């Protein structure tokens, strides 16, 4: 496996070339071409082509969202398990108060920083972006879809 660039807050967002640079543009262009064709030659087939193009775009987007949602559920479970192992009891009991987005943001925190960040997230109601910015020693997530 090739060496991976070390992740940080600045570069942790990942693009999937097949999705972002192929499927999304193809879906958008298909809708545009179908609408253009329908406006030039309105008939049942051209209207149906627009409906079908929109359905294709929805399929592309929903497929991506379903994968991300499933991954978020796994991350949430992993982080709850990690919190149960690393946090002392008073803080461990408050983990259910963290939002799903906060738990997902905490995955980038190393074990040593996790207790402080959980405490901060709970007391200050930190947004996920603020949690990520507060991490000093970033723990990369190289498997995110």
Number of domains: 2
> How many strands appear in the DSSP assignment?
0
Residues in β-strands, percent? under 5%
Structural class by helix and strand composition? mainly alpha
What is the quaternary state of this protein? Answer: single chain
User: What would the average pLDDT be, to the nearest integer?
Assistant: 93
Determine the number of helices (DSSP H or I, runs of at least 4 residues).
Answer: 6
Percent of residues in helices:
55-70%
Shape: elongated
Largest sheet: none
Low-confidence stretches: none
- Written as H for each helix and E for each strand, in order along the chain, the element string is HHHHHH
Separation, N- and C-terminal Cα atoms: 17 Å
- Taking all Cα atoms into account, the compactness measure Rg is 21 Å
Topology:
Blueprint: H1 17-40, H2 44-86, H3 89-92, H4 100-106, H5 114-124, H6 128-134
Helix pairs in contact: 1-2, 2-4, 4-6
């Amino acid at each position: 496996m090739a060496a991976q660039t070390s992740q940080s807050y600045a570069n942790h967002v990942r693009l999937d070339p097949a999705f972002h640079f192929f499927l999304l543009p193809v879906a958008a262009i298909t809708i545009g071409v179908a609408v253009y064709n329908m406006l030039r030659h309105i008939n049942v087939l051209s209207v149906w082509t627009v409906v079908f193009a929109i359905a294709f775009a929805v399929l592309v987007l929903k497929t991506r969202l379903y994968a991300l949602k499933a991954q978020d559920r796994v991350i949430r479970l992993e982080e709850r398990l990690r919190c149960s192992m690393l946090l002392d009891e008073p803080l461990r009991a408050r983990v259910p108060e963290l939002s799903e987005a906060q738990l997902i943001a905490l995955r980038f925190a190393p074990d040593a920083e996790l207790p402080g960040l959980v405490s901060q997230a709970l007391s200050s109601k930190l947004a996920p972006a603020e949690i990520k910015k507060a991490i000093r020693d970033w723990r990369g997530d190289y498997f995110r879809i």
